[in-house]
């Protein structure tokens, strides 16, 4: 019997795989384990206030919901270009920096890194156990990227992909062939509160996050409280004009943001209202 044929080099080089297939290789990410460790950390907390703090409740954005959100942001951004919303703004970049405020075990950060050609993806999380889980998955993610670099060309979430604007600034999928991109290699997690990790007022945390670098901000804020969302709106003022801020269940009440669209999408706990804002 003849040995099985070895795959030719052309089949090994750059076969496109779906972002979901790549994402599903990250086996250390486990929703139930994250939910459990969040509950244990809340219970074990010596600070009673924190133990009963509903803002720390755990839930996740499913992969396909984040896919819908990123597609919607891309559509909003393209429409903005066509309507000259960005005519006098030259540094906004839909492929720039994605930030998840309250990143939990990291699911949306890794999903964004697979789904869209962001140059960097950042997560900020207050709970030590969840932050630690996200670092474990980050190790797995980098190992996967390093071990099979040639294979990791992902099909774009939009048909065709590639640059669609005359100046090329909106859709510059920098990773090579049209209709594909590589998973984002610059993925980073910060441990601390999203309310005081800001580079201008960082005090209790060592990490520093610079809001001015964020192009797409996501806050799975259903469990947050109004005053927390108001604080985030104030911090978000430091974002660049034209940048996107997506919040759940609470709309940003700020003269610095316009509500572009709202939607109702499926989350791990049921449906939630999703608000798409643009920094004015
Ligand atoms: C509903 S979960 C969302 C997790 C993740 N973003 C997702 O969608 O899969 C909200 C997360 O925000 C975190 N969180 C709550 N308050 C925070 C704060 N002040 N700073 C950082 N993270 C916070 C919680 O611990 C929790 O992990």
Describe what this molecule looks like in 3D.
The chain has helices spanning 9-12, 19-23, 31-44, 48-51, 63-82, 107-115, 128-147, 226-236, and strands at 16-17, 97-101, 120-125, 153-155, 180-181, 186-191, 216-219, 244-248, 257-267, 270-279. The chain is an alpha/beta fold and 280 residues long. It has one domain (14-279): Vaccinia Virus protein VP39 (Rossmann fold). The strands form 2 sheets. A 7-stranded mixed beta sheet has the order 6-3-2-7-8-10-9, covered by helices on one side. It has a 3-stranded mixed beta sheet with strand order 1-4-5. Helix 3 runs antiparallel to helix 7 (128-147) and helix 5 (63-82) packs across helix 6. The chain starts with 8 loop residues before the first helix and ends with a strand. The model is unreliable at 6-13 and 158-176 (pLDDT under 50).
CATH topology (fold) name:
Rossmann fold
Number of strands: 10
Count up the domains.
1
SS summary, helix count: 8
**Helix amount:** 25-40%
Supply the CATH architecture.
3-Layer(aba) Sandwich
User: For this structure, what is the CATH homologous superfamily?
Assistant: Vaccinia Virus protein VP39
> Strand content of the residues, in percent?
15-25%
- In round numbers, the mean pLDDT is 83
